[in-house]
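Technical annex, item 7. During the second reporting period the consortium partners agreed on a shared format for inverse folding records so that results from different sites could be compared directly. Each record opens with the tokenized structure and is followed by the designed sequence. A conforming record, contributed by the partner at site C, is shown below for reference.
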């Protein structure tokens, strides 16, 4: 009976530890995976069609999302800053970031009915 109690306690502790570690990583993954470089508009434009690097724009994505793009920015101003998006669908656009960590990623931008930025996120495909 003591063995079952200790096994249950150890399993529960392990499960809690793994859960905390996973959600901690999940909350910080964008800054870890995509936070290496400051946004550089020239490099962003040059690497749009590059095949030299798999993660061609990914290193700038977190800085762009957190420090450059602000809510309320017009869709036209973002288009001037980032160029033509890879994908457009109604009030959302996506910019290709490349294949980062063996998965294709994009920067998704969502706009309201007045074409003002309301949200952005890094997506994986």
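Designed sequence (site C submission):
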């Amino acid at each position: 009976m003591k063995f079952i109690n200790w096994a249950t306690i150890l399993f529960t502790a392990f499960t809690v530890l793994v859960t905390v570690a996973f959600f901690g990583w999940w909350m910080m993954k964008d800054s870890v995976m995509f936070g290496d470089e400051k946004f550089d508009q020239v490099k962003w434009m040059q690497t749009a069609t590059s095949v030299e690097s798999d993660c061609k724009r990914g290193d700038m994505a977190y800085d762009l999302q957190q420090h450059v793009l602000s809510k309320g920015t017009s869709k036209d101003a973002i288009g001037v800053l980032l160029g033509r998006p890879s994908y457009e669908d109604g009030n959302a656009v996506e910019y290709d970031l490349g294949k980062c960590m063996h998965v294709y990623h994009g920067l998704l931008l969502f706009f309201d009915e007045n074409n003002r930025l309301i949200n952005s996120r890094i997506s994986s495909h």
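The radius of gyration is 20 Å. The longest helix spans residues 2-34. All partners now use this format for quarterly exchanges.
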